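Section 5.1 Outputs to date
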Amino acid sequence: MNALEQELYHSFLFFLRERNSDLTSPGVGLIRDNTKNRSMASIASVGFGLSAFVIGVENHYITKEEGLELVKSTMRTFLEAEHFHGFYVHFLDMDTAKPFKKSEFSTIDTAILMNGLLVADSYFDDSEIHQMFDVLFQRLDFRPFVKTFHEKEVLRMAYNPHVGGDYRQVSDDPWIYQWHMYAEQLSMYFLAAATDSMPEETAIALYHGFERNLGTYGPYQYYYSPTNALFVYQYSHAWVDFKHIQTDDGIDWFENSRIASLANRLWCIDHQQEFPTLNQSAWGVTACLTPKGYRNQCIDPNDLNFDDIHVHGVFPPSGPLGSIVFTPNESLEALEELEMQYQIAKGPYGFRDGIQLQEDGSLWVSEHDIGINKGITCLMIDNYLHGTTWKYYMRHPRIQKAMAKLHFQRRD
């Protein structure tokens, strides 16, 4: 294996090894959010993992029979898991599949889970998987999550019935914020349109309901997210092949992510005196582990409080590797930097989540791995090499239905 194939394989191993594989457990198939908290699963990790298992079969890491059983046992767990209009709790107990503490019913994390289910259902020609998928997808009802914001229809972010629960804080309102901005939620509009319960008019309105704000960094102009961390330009693209989609508003979301990735790299070049870990070969600042814990690293332009710290100067391998489909040359250069300078940062699942040169000259490397960062690395490297996730996601009848409902066209 070359370096890129090794990183793909070891990222895949996260989902195989950090999975509850006890067939007698109510939580079989759940995958850890991170390697530090052994008792907390993330449904987003599961979504990435379901796609990773298809990648594993295609790359001969596991057999097709093994992949089938991994997917089936996971789906059986979610048939029994608590849900709210088909949306699942963000964090679950690894052993019981019960909500972890007072976690919320999350739209974006459920979307990632559903994206993984779509890939698995598309790939495996298996009647039991098809039947379970139909039950799980038919449950999904976006209509209660639709709200009017600034006279436009948008989706709510989450629902939490627990006072003082995650994201609810002291609010009396169980509904949590809304997707009125451009961020990582693009695939949700496909999922909403793919459901039988969503009227076409509402599906189209939701796609047009979020703000499209243009921002500039250096020579790069693009539609930016208010926090402007790199992952927001990557996650939906791991499944939706925007390179070959003509949207009804004419926006090229693939090109937008390419420009955002290049702008991120330029920002790292421009700030290498302030953050000596970052340079033209060590770029891609995004949400990752830092010496101060998990932080969302956000570059300019952004809509955040000017006085807050937005970047911690940590080099996250998932940043450039998660953008490899947009910036292959620059991302491969970053991988070469990792191989040449940071072999010490390799762990059982490939390069660790974050790397930083300290003021005293020592090197800080995160001790743990994050499932969603290993996930975007795995799926995007494989999309770059083989296009596996794109191929099976886009050919699913539900996504074909969503394309027609949204009036999007396939382009060559």
